[in-house]
Specification:
- The protein is mostly beta strands.
- The chain has a domain at 61-164: Immunoglobulin-like (Sandwich), CATH 2.60.40.1930.
- The protein has one helix at 132-141; strands spanning 61-62, 69-71, 77-84, 89-102, 105-117, 123-129, 143-152, 155-164.
- The strands form two sheets. Strands 2-8-7-4-5 form a five-stranded mixed sheet, covered by helices on one side. It has a three-stranded antiparallel sheet with strand order 1-3-6, with no helix packed on it.
- The longest helix is centred in the last third of the chain and has 10 residues, at 132-141.
- The protein is rod-shaped.
Amino acid sequence: MAPPPVCTDGHKVSDHDPPVVTLSLPAPPQGETSPQGETPAPPTKPPPTKPPATKPPAGIASFSRSPKSLRVSKTGSFRYSFAATPSRSGKISLRSTKKVKIGSQQRFAELAPKAFTTASTGNVKVKFKLSSKSLRALRRAKRLRFGVTAVLGGRTFTTELTLKAPKKA
């Protein structure tokens, strides 16, 4: 049989002893001291919660009011315009829909992608310039069909554009 439990002062602990209860006193109002002479720390506010970060809605590009065909200048430059979500930036690129003879090879005529930023009105105007070889191919063909691809806010929008050769002087 196990020996009966002993209290710290050497007395035997029995089942008829009352249980020990510990009480905690509430903190005194601010500015007063507790019985121990301590001033409690002021209550702290919980940190402000930030709303979850939301991504702005993706941009939208519209080619409904864009020209379906454009005449290229004698130097090979032209401006293409379209509508998009205001104050957004993106990239636009043009690539011929069929292979054309450029130099000594048959290949797609591609224009370097251009970065753009939409004006607050929602209008975008991008200036392109054909290379001398691409301009020569356009003059030979009189007109070329290009696929237009605009990337805005991670979304891709496409349409087609016909470029016409410059008029002979």
